Amino acid sequence: MTKTRVLLAALALVAPASSGVAQQPGAAVAPGPAPELDTLKFLVGSWRCTGKQLAAAKPHTFTASLKVRLAPDNFWQVFDYEERKSRDHAAVKLHGFWGYDQSGKRYVRSAAGNSGGWEVATSPGWDGSRLVWTGDLYLPTGKVAFRHVYTKKSDREFGHVWETGEVGKATVASDVTCKRGAADEDDGF
Questions:
Q1: Which of 30, 60, 80, 123 has its CA 20 to 30 A from that of 51?
Q2: Residue 32 backbone dihedrals phi, psi, to 5 degrees
Q3: 178: buried, middle or exposed (CB in 10 Å: 19+, 13-18, 0-12)?
């Protein structure tokens, strides 16, 4: 192959990459993170939680931790939640993320846990101090509708109530209060 053909072949490979859409006048620029995500920033950090398991054969209390961090390029918050195992309580570990769907104008979240289950949920946004997630939990035993209500009490405290079942027939499964503080280092996250 001649030097001219090699040069033309190299230019053919480089030219498309160097004339990207972003360089053309009037080209659309990718949006940044939605401003609605700012309403979730107070959750970033480590939390210690205490809760009541109400939908068990023997209702009981448990302790938990939550760690939330910003990830990829601040479009999402990644969370790790763990309820510690005790004599009455099975360990619960969840890893997930939440963010804002700019085209759908709603908050979205998804998570997976140590029971083999996973969930997806959406929320229209904050109504005063409450953020209500509705969605479906997919367990090895089947699909369960849920509602998860977050109530912001302050920048250092919030509660969340997990309800299962259809709207109007829901059962409160757990009621948890979380306070800002260093979560244990051995949480397994």
A1: 123
A2: -85, -175
A3: buried
Let me know: does 96 contact 89? Beta carbons within 8 Å: no
Annotate the chain with three-state secondary structure: CCHHHHHHHHHHHHHHHHCCHHHCCCCCCCCCCCHHHHHHHHHCEEEEEEEEECCCCCCEEEEEEEEEEEECCCCEEEEEEEECCCCCCCCEEEEEEEEEECCCCEEEEEEEECCCCEEEEEECCEECCEEEEEEEEEECCEEEEEEEEEEEEECCEEEEEEEECCCCCCEEEEEEEEEECCCCCCCCC
Of residues 136, 92, 97, the one with CA closest to residue 114? 92
In this prediction the pTM is 0.78
Encoded tokens for 13: 């490979």
What distance lies between CA 130 and its chain's CA centroid? 16
> How long, in residues, is the chain?
189
Write the pLDDT tens digit of every residue in 16-43: 344 444 446 666 777 889 999 999 999 9
- For 59, the token pair is 């209702």
